[in-house]
Amino acid sequence: MPKGSEFMSERRPRTVGLLGAGVIGGGWAARFVLNGVDVQLLGRSPGTTERVRQMLVNARRAYQRLTPVPLPAEGALTFVDSVADAVRGVELVQESVPERLGLKQQLLAAVSRVAAPETLICSSTSGLRPSLLQVEMDQPERLIVAHPFNPVYLVPLVELCAGQSTAPETLLRAAEIYRSVGMHPLVLRKEVDGFIANRLQEAVWREALWMVHDDLATVQEVDDVVRYSFGLRRAIMGPIQTYRIAIPETSARRSMERWGPALKLPWTKLIEVPELTDAFLDKLAEQSDSQAENLTIPELERKRDDCLVAVLQGLRAQGCGAGETLARWEQRLLDRGPQLINGTGPLRMPTRQIPSDWLDGSGQITESRSLQLCGIATDNLLSYIGVDGGYRSNVGSYYTVETHLSHLRDLYVGDQVQVLTQVLGADDRRLQLFHVLMRKGDEGPAATGEQMLVHVEASSGRSGPVQGKVREHLLKLARLHAELPRPDRAGASIRLG
Length: 497
What we know:
alpha/beta, eight-stranded mixed sheet, 18 helices
């Protein structure tokens, strides 16, 4: 097997311990479990089990829409009753209890006394400096802040902040783990209250509260201003780059000089906060309830997730921002690689469930989704033989020049589908593949797909020979598959009568 899949398996932890099962702790549980990591979760509040399991349901639903790439087998979710049970045998502990310094210090100190010496200890605090969290710990060098954003299973950013006693290798190890589960770790240069994102986010929130407090705008109007204007840009570029291109200046310095005087105008309240009187809280609640249009919290969460999925997919298509993180996560899933059946048979792609948005008006899977499954199976095979980012940049890759798809059985929402891939032929430039889409429990295929691919050189953009280890892996696989029976529908064409 090529090195790619081995690389990621070394970084992804087998087991993590989670302390706290609220919105953040439950989100961490979903993020890790759906990436194949076992979770030992401590949460003492009533309803913990049901709340976390429902969050896992929401995350599965979102992931089905987010990516067509099959996920690894889910990790086990175990609810435990003590700190010792939560941290036993884990590689990382993630603390997500309420934002009270004394509570966190006491809990993290207890963790440091019972966790193995090599265990990473991370806090999800949204604003407390890690040096304050380290004061009562044994081995404080292994603690960092790893601040995520809700919903943790979809939003990729995690801010990593070291304390005064944190060892540099702790940050490196943590960053590798978070990348392995599809996140974008950002290491802060200096320790600061509130970190980066919340300091920016809360400045806008304070001003929004003043707008509503002073009757300059309603809750709906404030949120609409963000959603319909600069909020759209924020997924693509941040506030500084936005102002950089807002006027036709070729120099970034000149652009900032032209905008700078506006910052001296008395437009905002900045750090002042309106008093949260009963009357003001009633105003906020009434307007916020009206804005929600009678949707329940679970309904609002699903709507939020669906919209985040759409934005992430759009950014992925453009190779921009969080879309790049999504693409890298998908590639890591592919790099874990399919397996040969019984050591010599077709390549077997992991099973995935058909989500509802894959269906047409008649309730059946669309042709484009069947083709997409074949395409993912092809990507799996290319990863298996070693076509990775380095090979694509330096040598080239394979491109499909012809596809033949046959529909044999209908597929519906919830069906478990697996793709088996066989190499029908290969030489230095061409690769012929045959895919069989199998529904779990069926004896015969639901569909088949046959593809012809050509190897294209990165330098010239023209057909050229496959090279190096990729060639060796491909020809070895082709020899193995040449001994298999030829599929019945291989080479089939459209016929009338």
